[in-house]
Amino acid sequence: MMRASYPLATVCEALGCNRSSFYYEPGPPDDAELKDAIEEVVKDWPTYGHRRVAAELARRGYAPCGINRKKVLRLMRQMGLAERRPARTVRTTNSEHHFPRYPNLLENLEICRPDQVWVADITYVRLAIEDLYLAILMDVYTRAVRGWNLWRGLDASLTLGALKMALAHGTPEIHHSDQGVQYACRDYVEALPEGVRMSMAAVGAAWQNGYAERAIRTIKEECIQLEEYEDYADARRRIGAFLQDVYNRKRIHSALGYLTPAEYEEAYYQSALTAVPDAAIIPVAGETEAGSAEEQPARDSRLGKRRDVAVGAALRGCPRSPDLVDAPHASENLVLNNSTSFTV
Predict the structure, then answer these.
(1) How confident is residue 130, by pLDDT bands cut at 50, 70 and 90?
(2) CA angle 199, 201, 206 (to 5 degrees)
(3) Distance of alpha carbon 278 from the chain centroid
């Protein structure tokens, strides 16, 4: 309006700006630097979604004007980094057995401390010459993998190997799994310490074991599907290194406020030390997209302060890498009860 009625010089003088500002036309934004930074993150974490990429960029100090997740998603799509590969499935659960079943204790349960709930699940690892199976036990509150076992079969020695490793570093209050025979069989139930309560998801209700399902999906996408293993020993060594050094100590989780399990657990115990006198502290012995299983716990319990934890530091309840020394024979050394016989 003013431009049509007054000379440009008069308008600019009244507004207190230069005439060059009127003629300026902004060019397209230069996103080359941000694209390079995104590419570096994706090289380290090939399956990170745009939320985790944005969080990792911030952790690495790349935030000249703040990290816009929508912009990161747009650039990742332009770079062809936002696609998801289809998943292949192999049946690992046989719930048709005569062993006792247990009710689901996690429904409406507030999970507010480490080792309150461990969840268990099984997946497969496809090699050129054979199929292997991986069993894990994960602490829900910290998302830390407490125990794991890689084995050639789906018998009880697979899950017992993972349980043996986990129990060497702690004891859960509740053990939750599906109703697969590997968890319901007598050998496995009797291996749990006294006082541990068994909990199981309903048959056909995989979402009731969503914490473990989500962890398994992450392990497959970020480790198993990206590697080509020579044999059983090579697969065991490399998967074990991923679980203990990368998943527990380097990989950030959206449900933990984009901390690693090691950082989150360390922050929990540091907070407990500052809030309660030492004499009152009794240690317990013994995608992501919104709405996913990883985001189910109440966010009010999150600790927002980041604490750096060295890779070699001891994580409460989690085995150190040297446990891999005698790991190849973990399943072979287990003695099973004669009453436990089943197939999947």
Answers:
(1) confident
(2) 145
(3) 31
